[in-house]
Here is the input.
Amino acid sequence: MFKSNVKVPIFCLLLLVLIAVLFVSCRKDKPRILIFSKTEGYRHTDAINAGYEVIFKNAIEKGFIVDSTEDAGKFNDNNLRRYRAVVFLDVSGALFNDEQRTSFKRFIQAGGGFLVTHASVDAERDWPWYNRLIGAYFYSHPAVQ
Here is the structure.
C-alpha cells in the first residue's frame, strides 16, 4: 500500500515561505539621505554643525540612514542612486564639474528629494538650472542676521 506523507511537503512549503519573507524583509532598505556641506565661500560653521546634529538626531528617531560628504565626487549616477534625498547644508561657491552637475540633475529629474538651507542659495551662480531649482540667489548677504 502507498503511504503519503503530506507533512513533509507542507513543511517544505512553509520553510520556503519563511525564507522568502526573511529575504524580502532583509532587502527593505531604510531610507537613505546624503548631506552635502562643501563650501567654497564663507562657511557657516555653527549652522552646519547644528544642521548635522538635528538631522542625525532625526535619523535615529525616524529610522533613516544619513551619509555626509564634502566631496563633490560623490555626485555621480551610481552613488546618487542609493539616496532618496540630498540635503545641501549651507553649501557655497562653485560645487560641481559638468559631469557632477549632470548626475545631480538626473537625480532630481528622476524624483529624488532635495532640501537646501540658507547659504545654499549662494552656490553654483553660473548654473541656470540650479538657480531655477532653488528659485533665487542671494543679492547680498546681510552682515547681521
Residues 4-8, 23-27 have pLDDT under 50 and may be disordered. The longest helix spans residues 7-27. The two ends are 91 Å apart (CA to CA). The CA atoms of residues 24 and 109 lie 28 Å apart.
